[in-house]
Amino acid sequence: MTPVSMPDILEHLQRLGMSGYEAKAYVALVAAGRPVNGYEVAKRSGVPRSTVYETLGKLVARGAAYEVRGAADATDYLPLPPAALLDRMRREFDGSVAVLQTALPAVVAAPEGHLIHNLKDGEAMLARAEDVIAGARRDLFLSIWPQELRRLDARVREAAGRGAEVSVMSFGKVAEAPGGDLPGSVHEHRYSAPEAVLQDLGYRLIVVVGDRREAVVGGFGTDGSAWGVYTADPAVALMAAEYVRQDIALQILAERVGAAELDRLFATDPGLLRLLGRGRA
Predict the structure, then answer these.
(1) Within its chain, how far is the Cα of 180 from the centroid?
(2) Taking Cα atoms as reference points, which of 219, 222, 224 lies closest to residue 129?
(3) Is 197 helix (H, G, I), strand (E, B) or coil?
(4) What is the pTM of this model?
(5) What region holds the Transcription regulator TrmB N-terminal domain (predicted)?
(6) Which of 21, 178, 197, 241 has fewest C-beta within 10 Å?
(7) Does residue 207 contact residue 229 with C-beta atoms inside 8 Å?
């Protein structure tokens, strides 16, 4: 496992609800290994002395630390052990999620229109794609390159485990993961050589569609740039799903009749040749 740095630990504690000062003070208490007073916590953590007792009071109030009597009746502090703290946070988080699953839908107003928004970079696009996959219950369509599939692999397996029918078109070999082959109907795009597609388009296209009701569509440039959109418009999501389905159908057809025969068919029909376009190898 990759070692986790101190800034990472502090960041994750803040994600779970602690302030920056609270996270620093709690880590200082854990690292001390014995009861320490506020002055020592400030010295160890970098929390200003003017706010360290207020910060420690907040930790005590949330049950992450305890006051104990030190020398000369001074107040020292002990942390709640990390395992106990994380277990408590997990219970509180799960409890809040359970309540909100019922409460939030009850206050949601009917949308005036179908949601659509831009995704500013590759990380935002992959995070939104994870959301789409997590919401899929019936079917899931992906047109994707191995570089992006590695990030989404675990989420795709979870969707398949929930019973979603998974269909994947991969522009390149799908590497076998520790969990084995990717579940569902998985096809490697050979009729359109990935190198030719990349040269023709200039970017790696990604399409992720969940239950034909929401989709992420975007591209990853060879220069590290990325662009994309998320939409909950069912018409757009349906078209995106059809794009993946038709591409899979063409790949299956090429496998059945042979790429050479399919090329001959396209070459003898100007209409099909025009639709095929460039990028075929």
Answers:
(1) 21
(2) 219
(3) helix
(4) 0.66
(5) 13-81
(6) 178
(7) no
